Amino acid sequence: MTSPYQGYVYAYPHKTAYRPLDPAPPLRSVWAEEDKSALFLYLHVPFCEMRCGFCNLFTRTGASEDLTSAYLSALSRQADAVTDALGDASFAMAAFGGGTPTYLNAAELDRLCDIASRFAPLGSAPPGSAPLGVETSPATATPDRLRVLRDRGTTRISIGVQSFVDAEARAAVRPQKRAEVDTALDAIRDAAIPVLNIDLIYGIAGQTAESWAYSLETALRWKPEEIYLYPLYKRPLTGLFRLGRDWDDHRLALYRQGRDHLLAAGYEQVSMRMFRLPSGGVGGTGAGGTEYCCQSDGMIGLGCGARSYTSDLHYSFEYAVGATEVRAIIDDYVRADDFTTARVGFRLDEDERRRRHLLQSLLQASGLDRAAYRARFGSDAMDDFPDDLKGFADRGWLDVGPDALRLTSEGLAYSDAIGPALFSGSVRALMDAYEAR
Ligand code: SF4
């Protein structure tokens, strides 16, 4: 029996499949022939107050104000090089992610908004502005920071709460106080940023159906426009979960409970993890939020942990998760003065582009639009990936309709098995080689 928890595919290919580009192509030529009418701008802030036990993101703790200031200066130099290479471009969405962007203080966040505003006006108006999403944490979602973010056009704020039970937060190695979480959520609502997203985690040691229901119900008190439910991937060290199967069953039961709880509360399911109120709001990821299409549109990432996408090249800086390597990469970034080339990346051939489109579409509840796929690639997805897709259908994970390929309810529950199963052999080999280093 396949474990439903093989891996979270939030981007394809994963950065562990990127390799140094030699020679490093100039950004000007990388972007010359690209459609730049609806880009996504992403600024990465690789700093956090503490390292959560479940985190595998590119971030470091304990950054001094000297370092955050130097990092912003490097971002500004990179923005100079990128705006120069892009020429005319329009942005459909912008986001500050991390790490924890609100690790920066209010004045630094203002500086960060200045840098982003050089690409596009931020906010939901006037036309041509890019709605801005920002990630935050309970300790750093303070009124002064939120005021700056709201005044500079933030339309969506996402906060990692994980659990409203202090003991569970501690067990997930995110020691936070419930009172701090409540204060942060009140402050976000007071700031009147249109869309609030709350992240919760299931599968934590000691979490029960009752405590999970309590966290879900408590989150709903703030009427968040969006809620993400994440399965925990770091194994709890308790006797109960010594066997992988037990933990899988536990997570699957909590997933189903969480999904049903939110559907009963009026949320719609967008993907295995994402739920939103049908009126998602301006600047959310709902219909009113953006025209950006993650399957085909490009992305400009600034910062040493951010990636950028063109139609056939994904690129970034060096990748690491270990504390020493992350610090070294950040130190190199703040000293760099040449941002005119793409240094590390992955070139997507025709097969990889089809695979990426399939993955990005199939893992959404709305599924893959067969006509859109045909219009883009000149073939039918069922003919391009017959074995994988028929295999999913045979397992009851996929509905093959004349217009769309859509995961069933059970298929959505197995998204983290379906995604990795669609990796190409060459991407899998590059990822395995990276892990084996
Ligand atoms: S706050 Fe987010 S990025 Fe920072 S350590 Fe925790 S999970 Fe990782």
3D structure, described in words:
With 437 residues, the protein is of the alpha/beta class. It has 2 domains: 15-280, pyruvate-formate lyase- activating enzyme (Alpha-Beta Horseshoe), CATH 3.80.30.20; 350-435, Arc Repressor Mutant, subunit A. The protein is built from 16 helices and 18 strands. It has helices at 27-32, 65-86, 106-117, 143-151, 166-171, 178-190, 209-220, 244-264, 323-335, 350-362, 370-377, 381-384, 386-394, 409-413, 415-421, 425-435; strands at residues 19-20, 39-45, 47-48, 60-61, 91-98, 132-136, 154-162, 195-202, 226-231, 268-269, 274-276, 299-302, 308-309, 313-316, 344-347, 368-369, 398-400, 404-407. The chain has a 9-stranded mixed β-sheet with strand order 10-11-9-8-7-6-5-2-12. A 4-stranded antiparallel β-sheet has the order 1-15-14-13, with no helix packed on it. α4 (143-151) links the parallel β6 (132-136) and β7. The longest helix is centred in the N-terminal third of the chain and has 22 residues, at 65-86. The structure holds iron/sulfur cluster. Residues 48, 51-52, 55, 57, 59, 98-100, 137, 160 line the site of iron/sulfur cluster.
